[in-house]
């Protein structure tokens, strides 16, 4: 492995969370060579969950070339969902029933684990339990959603199919059908990551920034990272949590970097009461999704485009903002809102909607975490569990699901 990761701009314009209070994470430049049990490259939400998990019983250093939290984590709309981008029925067609069942159940338990961690660690990040309303669209229509409800029920997941009349009566939405499921959540992703990093720091973890990891070399005893600070980091294990800046030498078959857009309305937007407790998304391509934040802002996103750079185009940001707003107005004509923030970011997709979490080929003691798809944060939790087990010399029973 030579140059450690590809560098790209991760987001454009000002995301909502950049103005959140409580984002301070003490970080220092690397002024001397260090030696630790685990070095984590990347101080976003994946690095934060990893540091939180491994600092329980290891010495940990987290290194980032940017200030902590300022990668794609800051751009995230943080719908914390167990429902994978690909419905269970479609995932079954791709990877088989047994694996698809495990992938869904594992995501479900990961969201529950995230909520437990936030409660136990008393992390103030606006976490709120939410149901999810998945609307029939041009990718999956009402028949497909009805079959999906059945498939989920067979593996013990609670998703109710709503007929158009129910949907109209309960939610005032005109669509041919929907799935209504419990067990999701929403949060401020930057405050969540900051809280996790600070808890890890309280257990001894150190955060170094700005420090770019340029090269990694492994040997039977561990890994040496060469940094732009001119000082080496020696670690028994290394975990790359570099978001969408893929570590070189790690295969990413079927993975693509795309662009996505998001908006937030002014606080205290007058919304229907049900919207306080539900995330809404649709089975369309491109799709629309939205949820309410704690201060009554609507956080809305979608209009994904298959380009790694389109999110850098300011004129496009304006157009996408108009398209997303118009789509929301069509869906909920009564809603009155004014946009306060708009931003765009890079986003990773895989053919299955599953992430890539596993050892770096030909490099001992080294793992890479790439949380593809709309469930990136759920996958950050799973990554900390899978890699946590591997670093401790055990094997997570679902590790095979996430190997690319
Ligand atoms: C607009 C948008 C909306 C989203 N909505 C959702 C959602 O609703 N729900 C959800 O679950 N997910 C969502 N996601 C996805 C989710 O945000 C990502 O999966 C998550 O932020 C990835 O976190 P990360 O820590 O892996 O990466 P990042 O936050 O990008 O952190 C990676 C860090 O690694 C550092 N780094 C990279 N290479 C090096 C190097 N060589 N040396 C040092 N440092 C390095 C970078 O500087 C960066 O800070 C969304 C993403 C976007 C862009």
How would you summarize what this structure contains?
The protein has 404 residues and is of the alpha+beta class. It is built from 8 helices and 18 strands.
How would you sum up this structure, described in words?
Helix 1 (45-54) packs parallel to helix 6, helix 1 runs parallel beside helix 8 (376-391) and helix 3 (97-120) packs across helix 8 (376-391). By secondary structure, the chain is an alpha+beta fold. The protein contains 8 helices and 18 strands. The chain is 27% helix and 27% strand. The strands form 2 sheets. Strands 1, 4, 5, 6, 7, 12, 13, 14, 15 and 16 form a 10-stranded mixed beta sheet that branches. Strands 2, 3, 8, 9, 10, 11, 17 and 18 form an 8-stranded mixed beta sheet that branches. Strand 9 and strand 10 form a beta hairpin. The protein has 2 domains: 11-75 and 190-253 and 353-402, FAD/NAD(P)-binding domain (3-Layer(bba) Sandwich), CATH 3.50.50.60; 129-184 and 255-349, D-Amino Acid Oxidase, Chain A, domain 2. It is globular and about 65 Å long. The protein has helices spanning 45-54, 88-95, 97-120, 142-154, 164-171, 189-202, 314-331, 376-391; strands at residues 11-12, 34-41, 60-63, 79-80, 128-135, 159-162, 178-186, 206-208, 213-219, 222-227, 232-240, 256-265, 278-282, 288-292, 298-305, 339-349, 356-359, 366-370. The longest helix has 24 residues, at 97-120. The site of flavin-adenine dinucleotide has 41 residues, from helix 1, strand 12, strand 16 and helix 8.
List keywords for this structure.
single chain; 404 residues; alpha+beta; FAD/NAD(P)-binding domain; D-Amino Acid Oxidase, Chain A, domain 2; eight-stranded mixed β-sheet; globular; binds flavin-adenine dinucleotide
């Amino acid at each position: 492995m030579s140059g450690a990761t590809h560098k790209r701009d991760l987001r454009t314009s000002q995301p909502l969370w950049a103005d959140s209070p409580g984002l301070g994470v003490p970080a220092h430049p690397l002024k001397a060579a260090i030696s630790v049990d685990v070095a984590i490259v990347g101080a976003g939400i994946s690095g934060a969950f990893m540091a939180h998990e491994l600092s329980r019983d290891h010495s940990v250093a987290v290194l980032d070339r940017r200030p902590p939290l300022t990668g794609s984590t800051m751009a995230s709309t943080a719908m914390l969902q167990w429902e994978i981008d690909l419905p269970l029925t479609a995932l079954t067609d791709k990877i088989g029933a047994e694996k698809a069942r495990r992938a869904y159940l594992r995501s479900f338990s990961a969201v529950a684990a995230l909520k437990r961690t936030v409660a136990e660690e008393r992390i103030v990040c606006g976490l709120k339990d939410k149901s999810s309303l998945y609307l029939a669209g041009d990718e999956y229509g009402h028949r497909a959603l009805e079959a999906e409800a059945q498939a989920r029920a067979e593996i013990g997941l609670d998703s109710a199919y709503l007929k158009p009349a129910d949907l109209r009566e309960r939610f005032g939405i005109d669509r041919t059908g929907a799935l209504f499921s419990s067990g999701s959540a929403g949060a401020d992703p930057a405050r969540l990551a900051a809280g996790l990093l600070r808890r890890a720091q309280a257990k001894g973890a150190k955060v170094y920034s700005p420090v770019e990891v340029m090269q990694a070399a492994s040997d039977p005893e561990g890994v040496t990272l060469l940094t732009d600070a001119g000082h080496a980091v020696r670690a028994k294990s290394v975990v790359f949590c570099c978001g969408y800046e893929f570590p070189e030498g790690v295969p990413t078959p079927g993975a693509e970097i795309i662009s996505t857009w998001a908006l937030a309305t002014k606080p205290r937007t007058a919304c229907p009461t049900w919207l306080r407790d539900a995330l809404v998304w649709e089975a369309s391509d491109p799709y629309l999704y939205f949820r309410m934040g704690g201060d009554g802002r609507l956080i809305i996103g979608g209009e994904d485009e298959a380009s790694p750079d389109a999110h850098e185009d300011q004129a496009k940001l304006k157009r996408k903002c108009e398209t997303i707003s118009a789509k929301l107005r069509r869906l909920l004509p009564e809603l009155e809102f004014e946009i306060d923030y708009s931003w765009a970011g890079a986003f990773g997709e895989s053919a299955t909607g599953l992430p890539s979490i596993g050892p770096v080929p030909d490099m001992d003691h080294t793992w890479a975490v790439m949380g593809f798809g709309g469930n990136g944060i759920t996958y950050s939790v799973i990554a900390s569990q899978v890699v946590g087990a591997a670093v401790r010399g055990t094997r997570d029973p679902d590790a095979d699901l996430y190997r690319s």
